[in-house]
Amino acid sequence: MKQLTSADTSFLTMETATQFGHVGSLYVYDKGADYATTLRQIEERLHLLPPYRRQLVEVPFDLDHPYWIESPNFDLDFHVRHIAVPPPGDREQLADLVAHLASLPLDRSRPLWEWYVIEGLESGGVGHFAKTHHATIDGASGVELMTVLLDDNPVPSPPPPPTEPWRPDTVPSPAELLGRTFWNLAARPQQAARAQFRLWQELMERSRDGSMERSFRQLLPPAPAGGWWPWAGDVEGGRAPAPTGVLPTRRAPRTPFNATITAHRRWSYVSVPLAEVKRVKSHFGVTVNDVVLAVCAGALRRWLVEHDALPADPLLAMCPISTRSGGEADTYSNQVSAMIASLGTDIEDVVERLRLINRSTVAAKEQFAAVPAAALQDFAQFAPPAVAAQASRLLAQTRIADVVNPPFNVTISNVPGPREPLYLAGAQLRHTYPVSIVTDGMGLNITVSSYLDGLDFGLIACRELVPDLWRLNDWLADSLAELADAAT
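RE: above sequence
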């Protein structure tokens, strides 16, 4: 029995009747990745996929973080399902099916995942929609799961046998769980002291290498030489190095998709060539992630202009950042933080917008480097899940997202994937389109996964807030084309 971390638990406590904590991907294969083959492949590798047999056990009254146990009622046939899209099985029909499946909550009395094998695609291939609760995995561990399940050769090698037989656990009684909780609560002062010591230790290390000071200077507003900030030194004549507008100084502006969401979803997807993104990156001396943000910014600006809803202030994007060090005790858990970057949607010129995004992400990374995210997460362990769950329900009931400006407008996540082809029983994987999460106040999410020579975009939105999601989706390719033209 293993207790969830605060980060893992947060994806459980965020759930309400309209927002869900699961994520997924639509994998598109060549012919051959049928239901029977997929079921057999997963069954043969279950011992290599620990999250697939983990079942959630929640503490009475949500007094403490829940636990994972080896599920005593594990039933593989329950999790792997066989469905089809109606003829002709075009991309919009497939997307509607995925959106519907993404709108259904997972059963917490069983391991928190489902796998749908989808026949009838117009392309002749086979789609797999794999849906897993975010309490179980983050983006990096999701890629890890995929590489374990699939092969790097069309002629698969048998997986290594399990080192010991799998044994289910007995579901602990409420009395046992409460007993563990009381012991945990008794140990909290000592744990808090260790967490505080770790935080100060990391802050000291950052102060020695100068990263904390550099980040602090990024936060300073412009000042005359020898003026308001004497401790900042003579940096560019007394000015902070970050230009105005690079670091967010206020809450994000309101847009049509920053409101209370319903339980209904729309989902769309598109692929763009990675080589073109890299050409733009190299020409302007920015990063691939900067180009991805600029592509999204261009499409969002166009969509907002068409809806007469472009705000005067730039949109802000929340970009998840992996905090994995490689030494994690449990690969399948959430090791992620975030940075906030300006999308420069108030700028019409695509090159100027890209350069602003680059300056914004550089400044945000400086801030992130100076804040010991992993140490700060230790303190979140002390908040009982009941408080967070009640807060989520209260926010949904009061519809406060309809009247206040959000902290950011959209989540844009870029998840690196394999550059070599993968296969399921000889059928090659062609695309990996992400299916992520939307929440009250943030009714749009754009997640990107790289695979082979392409970037696969998956857009998910509240159905009522963004009814024309395909318009936004198809402008992503146009936005990249504008950047590519500017790079010639």
